[in-house]
Amino acid sequence: MRALLVDGSAPGGLRLGTAPDPRPEAGQALVRVTAVSLNHSDLGYPGAPDGTVLGLDAAGVVERAAADGSGPAVGTPVVTLGFDGAAAELRAVPTDWIGTVPAGADPGAVGTVPVAGASALRALRRLGPILGRRVLVTGATGGVGRYAVQLARLGGAHVVASTGDPERHGEGLRELGADEVVAGPSELGEPVAGVVDTVGGGQLVEAYAKLGEHGVLVSVGRVTGEGEHFPFAALSGHLPGHHDRSVTSFFLGHCAGLAPDLTWLAGRVAAGVLDAGIAWRGGWDEVETAVEALRERRLHGKAVLELKG
């Protein structure tokens, strides 16, 4: 089968080549991929050997149903999650990481759901009830951030979106559902009940300082390369407003029951309730262009490769 392979000598570190067809296990379906949504982790894990097929997010159609009878039937449009193998014509996927997709939905759009959409959904659930409460989303123009802004608004929160360039991105974030747009957590006036942090480093520390009592910060990702250094007494609960605040880590791969979440999210994207935020779309022979844009962080949204022909 054709696939995008790790190649340290190729521009961007990936090249179009061939790889053996996957052999599904009993609890896996074989999916013919039609679209791949790129994440920063798809640009090459440190030490990934040449020939590795990367990719987490992919949409397609079930080619062979799981042998154990679980999951969708042959011919079902689906969206899939995995730690690798997305950027290929065929993908073997555990059925609990497969969501079904409405007929006629845009594969490129629903293909953005697995990592970004499901991470945002699970992070917001970790905050607890958000109806009528203030929620901060950092890195709000990124893939997870965009979904978090929209889902928090659907959940009834007062959404504060943080972005490095409010003048440029403020209008778009408000269209997605943000009630306020700030340049960073330090600009917040009133405290917030919850934070979905996709940045890490100093911004995570600043965001934690803005939590009110009983507030929760969910650390979804880090893009700064910085560590988190809290000032003296930042974690002292006896200080005014500091009681019972927490920071929690997050890893989508350890979440159970993802199939219904992927199905629900894909349905909302297909219905136009959620904006997939595709910032770049092209054929998989254009992967070098997409990789360059991602590495230089020129894309505020998702990059989608369509696997055709």
From TrEMBL:
Enoyl reductase (ER) domain spans which residues?
9-305
Q: Which GO terms describe its molecular function?
A: oxidoreductase activity
What protein am I looking at?
Alcohol dehydrogenase
Residues covered by region (Disordered) = 1-25
Q: Lineage of the native species?
A: Bacteria, Bacillati, Actinomycetota, Actinomycetes, Kitasatosporales
Source organism, top-level taxon: Bacteria
What Pfam families does this protein's entry cite?
Answer: ADH_N, ADH_zinc_N
Q: SMART domains in the record, alphabetically? A: PKS_ER
